[in-house]
Amino acid sequence: MMARALPLSGRLSGESGLRLLMLLLALALLVIGLLLPLATMLIKSVQDRSGDFVGLANFARYVQTPALVGSIINSVSIALISTLTVVSLAFLCAYGITRTCMPGKRVFRMLSILPLLAPSLLPAISLVYLFGNQGWFKDVLLGESIYGPIGIVMGMTFWIFPHALMIMMTALSNSDARLYEAADALGTPKWRSFLTITLPGARYGIISCAFVAFTLAITDFGVPKIIGGQFSVLATDVYRQVVGQQNFQMGAVVSVILLLPALLSFAVDRWIQRRQVAQLSARAVPWQPTPSPLRDWVFALLCYGVAAAILAVIGTAIYASLVQFWPYNLSLTLDHYAFKALAGGGWDAWLNSLTLAFWVTLIGTLVIFFNAWLTEKSQGYRPLRQGLHFMAMMPMAVPGMVLGLSYIFYFNQADNPLNWIYGTFAILVLNTLVHFYTVCHLTSVTALKQLDPEFEAVGASLKVPFWKTFCRITLPVSLPSVLDISAYLFMNAMTTVSAVVFLYNSDTRLASIAVMHLDEAGHFASAAAMAVLIFFTCLGVKLLHAVVSHLLLTRAQRWRQAT
Amino acid sequence: MSLVTAPPRHHASRQAPPATAGASPRAVSGPAARAPARDAAPQALTTRSASSDSIHLKISGLTKRYGQFTALSEIDLAIREGEFVCFLGPSGCGKTTLLRAIAGLAPQSEGTIHQRGQDISRLPPQARDFGIVFQSYALFPNLTVFDNVAYGLRNRRDARDAMRRRVTELLTLVDLAGSEGKYPAALSGGQQQRVALARALATEPGLLLLDEPLSALDARVRLHLRSQIKALQARLGVTTIMVTHDQEEALAMADRIVVMNHGVIEQIGTPAEIYRQPASAFVAEFIGSMNFLQCCPENASTLRLGQQRLECAAHDLEGLDQARLAIRPEAVSLCAVGEGLSAQVEHVEFLGAFLRITLTLEGCGQTLSADVALKDSESLGVRVGARVGVRLPSEAIRLYPLVEAQA
């Protein structure tokens, strides 16, 4: 026995050493990809152009510049209005889906995720076509211009709606039928059940939804860039300061300010998540809606209206990309898909985006899932694992513009040993991976928590190395979630603008950035064409994901069948 | 945390009902409470310990702390080769923590563990020699029964045929031959747990750890699997530690029981010892049903219960003003009014083979229960409100200090 155990212990201390190494690598990834760049940016915000410490002088100068301070008010008011609009809409639609018997739920849900498949530039472009100076529905605005707050709020609402709807649906589907039955038995009118059961039950979801919407709205770059006109917001200020005026210090200052609301909503969201857990009882009986024709049709019409608006926006972009010269020559053409205006050709940018999305998806899925496994399922090194989890939660609070600018500061330093990745694909991959890390991490952790906590212990007791148990059991069993992560990463890598806008060079220009450039140069139809191209690429991947998931689930049906 | 600090009385009252079934054969045997059925266990133990007397596992000074909270405190324990030991205690008593420390899954803060003389205190689980079965089965859902059982074998690169033979042999052992191709989800709970058992035994571990293996199963399946595991263990002779909160399970299966509470061992002994000579009021209350009466120990062999003086076995509590007298319901015997202590019948509960009668003692006003066979109760005319005589045989009485139970 001893003879057998001794050589084993030698090999297996190697196993826990390997685990430690993996953990350190995972930490290094986030330290290099997140912490150090952010720290560098914070330092830059208190330095002058020559790199000397100037305290809060930059901030003082910021406050004294009315054009810049105005952006704070602009950003906050735009974000508040967008949040209010999108949360109300999402609540109503989610209520329709979860609490009524309206027809066509499934179709509506599929249509409602379409905005996720396009960069936020797309709705802005469409809105210009619909309500711009030569738009069909210009008169609806009663003389107000679409370029400015109105356009931004509309674009934001379109783009944030799917995010908000998903959170709201989760919040509203957590219902306990027993509470409603008790209320009915006590003769409670429906409106009172709604106020005393439905709303309180969903309150954390509503708050969480509001903060997510607010963060997305205040940090989004794409919509205000295209449709903002002279109306400046924080995100466009960062871009203008850095790319337009090469004023990196002021860019850093605006970034720090942009970081604040995001940090706040991040903190609130964490707090809510903690409260939410205690609220749900495992014994709750899900509530099933009963038909009520009037209510069902009211909600159905509302949802169809929303779906129609989504289709109209996307349809406009598609149509605009196909007509010769809006609005004078409406004959159809594919000319705009040649992207002649773009030096180096637009299809290269599209290929670059595909390449980026491929690598981000491949590396990101494996790395993030494995890192989540390290934090969730491995033994020992508790402080390291907690540190990793904490850092994995941070990217959610960092707006893309801020992350992108931080990367310039950090990786562009001549004395940084990683300086070589500046201007390559590698920096785009690293940036995008870190930018969208948190949601993937949370998805992984949720999936891993559903596994029996003793799988690893059983594997260890049978002297099977941990990586084998990971590959044979953990990964296959979590495959649906892993595929979800892949699809999420792919779509975001295809559509992101904000972070990578600072990091590409002429060889690594991405499709989403090409949309922006074409729009800046006045090639609106080509910009629409590129946005549509991204949209269909994502749609294709999404469909592929659905098919693959379906096939895998059918294949795995044999063992997934619940007893 | 709150569970741990709760007074033991609470757990005991929760554990009481199952005891009645286990206690029934003894109850029928009458006041003597020396049921022959129990004596089988020590005999089995002696036959085994004669064959192998070496120590398989030795735990010394083992302490486990989680921050400020001490989950295990200075545990000392030796387990013999081939022995079946149960860790028994209320939830939060540290029994699972101790098992996980032995497995290396929750390494101890202090203390040592030796397995067959080798110090394994700091070894990771992979380097220790044990098989483990969890309450949740922890079967790999995406692998067939065959692959689950073969999981540890495959890694050792055994020849395919040998491996196949071994899996078939193991599945036959747990009565599941022919289920090789099924997935865990297609099996019942009891079947799944047997697959888990086969998987744990596949690598022929020197030590088998069972972490509440029966708790997730239906009562009927539990009884069946209980005897199956016990028979299997006896046949293979593998040293086994089972964690359970079910005292009936522990009494039925174990060679020795380790009763734990608040992270310390209260008593180690054979089921018969634990049942008949509980070392503390906690053990007395936790195992089986027990009456507790307040009394006053007068000297080494007599005590006073209210105004009555009673004989009792020798004890070392003289000089104390008050003590707790413990006696099992089946040891209490009823007799005609006028003999023994007088009592009034408060409540009669019909439990099948016997009646549990709740009595109030006249004079001191304390209540106690007595388990009485149906025909005895008829001959004595037991009914609610009737007066009867009560005898508390001196050899069945145990005394405990008053404060200890609250510790």
UniProtKB/TrEMBL annotation, chain A:
Primary location recorded for the protein, binned into one broad class: membrane
GO CC annotation: plasma membrane
Record domain ABC transmembrane type-1: where: 72-269, 350-545
Pfam families: BPD_transp_1
The keyword Metal-binding appears for this protein: no
Keywords: Membrane, Transmembrane, Transmembrane helix, Transport
GO biological process: transmembrane transport
Membrane topology classification: Multi-pass membrane protein
Superkingdom of source: Bacteria
Transmembrane segments: 20-43, 72-95, 107-130, 150-172, 193-218, 248-268, 297-322, 356-375, 387-408, 420-440, 482-504, 524-553
Organism (species): Cobetia amphilecti
Cell compartment(s), UniProt: Cell membrane
The keyword ATP-binding is assigned to this record: no
Family to which the UniProt record says this protein belongs: Belongs to the binding-protein-dependent transport system permease family.
Stored InterPro entries: AminoethylPonate_ABC_perm-1, MetI-like, MetI-like_sf
The protein's name: 2-aminoethylphosphonate ABC transporter permease subunit
